[in-house]
Amino acid sequence: MEAWDIIVIGDGPAALRASASAAKAGASTLMMSANSLGAGDTIAIDGIAAPLKESTTKSHRDDTIRAGGFLCDQDIVSQRVSEATRQVDLLERWGVIFRRDADGIPLVRRAAGHTLPRLAGAGDAMVRETQQVLEEQCMRHGVVRRGDQLPLRLVHTDQQVHGLICLDMTTGTVNAIQSKSVIIADGGFEGIWSGNSIGLGIDLAMRTGLSTRNMEFVSWAPLSISGTNVVLPIGMLADGATLHHSNGTPLEVEDFADSTSLANAVGSQGVVLDARNMGESKVWWAQTSEIVSTRLGINTSRQTIPVSAQVSTTLGGITTDEHGRAISGKWSRWFTGLYAAGDSACSGVHGAGMVAGNRLLDALAGGAAAGDHAAQFASKANFSGRAALETHLGAAEADLDFDMAGAEEGPVQRAGPLFAKLSEIMNTHLGLTRDKAGLESAIEALDNLQSNAEKLHIDDSSRLFNSNLLEALRLKAGIRLAKATALSALSRTESRGSHQRADFTDADPEQMHHTLVDEEGNISTLAIRKGPSGTWVLMPE
User: In 3-state terms, what secondary structure has residue 539?
Assistant: First the structure.
C-alpha cells in the first residue's frame, strides 16, 4: 500500500502553497487533483491585499472585519493581515511581476471594501503568474503532483485520519493511499450557482460526519458579464472603469463599497461597465479585453459591457483554526490529521463578506500554515489504519460499480439538465435575497433533485478519463452542499453581509455566532473567536 506523510487535495494557490511548505519542512508530500495538472481551482483573482504603505495593520484588519459583518474570527484576521506583506514579498521573490509605483515597490490601489490603497497585483496575469511560481516551488521541494485523481472516501477511525480512497482515472484503478495527514484545498462550491466547478473536498469531509460552517455566506462578483460565465476582475474599477445604468446615469454606490454592496447595487440587469477611459492602466487588462472581444464581440475601447452580479466564491466550508486544522464542533476538538485551506476552509478571515485581495491572501497564508503544521504533526505521528483502508477500498469499489451500473435502469437522467436545475434552484431561492418560503421550497426541490441524481445515466462505462463520472460525482456532492447551504440560511433569521433575508431585514446581535450544519441537516453553533488579547478588536456601531 502506498504511504505518504501528507496528501494534499487540490491544485490551486492554497494547495500549491500548502504542498511546498510541507515538503520544505521535510514531509513526503503527494498532491492530487481531480482536474488535469495546472488547471488550478480558482477563477478571477484580482490581486492580494497587503498594507504595504501603512505603518500598522489596523486599518486592513478593521476593513476586513467590517466587510465580514463582524462575524470574522478576529484573532485569525489579525494574524493573516500581519503576514500579508510577507506573502507579497515571497511572491515577488519567486517571480510574480507586480505593477510598480514611482518608488519601485508593488503598486497598491484602493479597491472594493478598503478604506486605503491596499490591493497589489499584476493585472489579468495575476492568476497565471501566481499558479506558475507556486508550481515551481513545489518542484523545487520535491512535491509529487498527480492529476486526474478522483477522491472517493476519506478514511478515518474516531476522527483520526488514516488516508484516502481515490480513483486514478489515468489507469482506471481504485487505490487506497495511507497518510498521516490530509489537507483539503480543492476550492469551494460556487458551481452550484454557476455550474462551473465544485470542489469535492468539503463534501468528502462532511460525509465523515464533520459539520461545515457558515454555508449561507458567499462572495459576489459584481462584474459578471450578463448571460455568460465570464467574470471581469473587480480591480478594473480601481483602474478607472466605471459603472452606469443603461441610460448612461452613473450607478450610485458608496465610494469603494465592498463586493456585497456592489453586487446589491448592480443587481441582475440594467448596469454596464465603461472601460473606455482607463488610460495607460488598460494594458494590464489586455487579456481580459481580448477574451471579451473574442467571445462576445465587444470592443472594450469603444463599447460598454453589460454586467450583473454572480456568486464568485463560497465563504463557508470546513472550520479551521489558525494552523489550518479541521475543527469538530468545538474549538478544542481537532479532527486529528485533517486540515483545510483556501476556499475549502472557513478560516474565519472573511466572515459574512469579503474585501478585494483577501481571497488570495487567505489562500497563501492559510496554505502555508496548514503545510507547516501538518509537517510538524507528521514528524511525530505514525501511520495507522491499514485494515480500515483495505475495508473501505472494497466498499468504494462496490459503490463505484453500483453507481455506473445502476444508471442503466429506470428513467434516464443526465448530469447536464440536473446541473441546470440545481443552478436554477440556487439562483432563484438563494440569490441576493432569501426568505423562509423560498428556502423551504429550495430544500424540497433539492430533495427531489437528489432522488433524480440517484438514477443518473453515465454514458461512458470505462474508468479511464471518465469525465461523465467526474461530473456525476460533482453533481451529487453539489446537491448535498446545496442542501446544507439552504438549511444554514434558513436557520439564520437575520440579514448580515452577503446573507440578506427579505423577512428579517436587520442584523440580530443575538446571532453573532457561526452556524454549523452536518450531512444529516443538524444545526448547531460555534462561538466567534475574539482578538489576540481575548477582547473584541472591533464591534459594530
Answer: coil
Say which CATH number the domain at 361 has. 3.50.50.60
At residue 261, the 3 state secondary structure works out as helix
Q: How many domains does the chain have?
A: 3
Return the number of other C-beta atoms located less than 10 Å from residue 226's C-beta.
17
Give the pairing type, strands 48-49 and 149-156.
unpaired
Rg (CA), the chain: 22
* Distance of alpha carbon 275 from alpha carbon 225, whole angstroms: 13
**95 CA to centre of own chain:** 24
| Triad 90, 91, 97: Cα angle to 5° | 135
- Residue 394 included in any domain: no
Residue 57 is placed in which grid cell?
495593520
Q: Cα separation of 408 and 454, whole Å?
A: 11
Within this chain, do residues 112 and 237 fall inside the same structural domain, yes or no? no
Phi, psi of 383 (to 5 degrees): -70, 145
Q: What letter would DSSP give residue 456?
A: B
C-alpha 84/C-alpha 148 separation (Å) is 33
Are 372 and 26 in contact by the 8 Å Cβ rule? The answer is no
Cell of residue 311, nine digits: 456568486
Per-residue pLDDT, 407: 47
Give the separation between CA 15 and CA 428, rounded to whole angstroms: 32
Residues 259 and 337 in one domain: no
Task: Using CB atoms within 10 Å of the CB of residue 434, give its burial: 0 to 12 exposed, 13 to 18 middle, 19+ buried.
Answer: buried
- Spatial separation of the C-alpha atoms in residues 216 and 443, rounded to whole Å: 13
Q: How far apart are CA 324 and CA 327, in angstroms?
A: 9
Distance, CA of 475 to CA of 458 (rounded, Å):
12
Domain with 64 in it: 2-216+313-387
pLDDT winner (highest mean) among 80-84, 105-109, 271-275: 80-84
Which single residue is written with the C-alpha cell 506573502? 87
Residue 170 sits in the same domain as residue 207: yes
What CATH number should be reported for the domain holding residue 239?
Answer: 3.90.700.10
Q: CA angle at residue 385 from 147 to 473, to 5 degrees?
A: 40
Percent of the chain with pLDDT over 90: 70
Residue 121's CB is within 10 A of a number of other CB atoms, namely 31
Rounded Cα–Cα distance for residues 328 and 159 (Å): 9
Beta bridge partners of 8: 31, 183
pLDDT digits (tens, 9 = 90+) for 281-310: 888 888 889 989 998 899 998 999 999 988
Does a structural domain hold residue 351? Answer: yes
- Amino acid occupying residue 220: W
In a domain, 397, yes or no: no
Domain-embedded: residue 204: yes
Predicted TM-score (pTM) of the model is 0.95
Last residue in a domain, options 279, 311, 343: 311
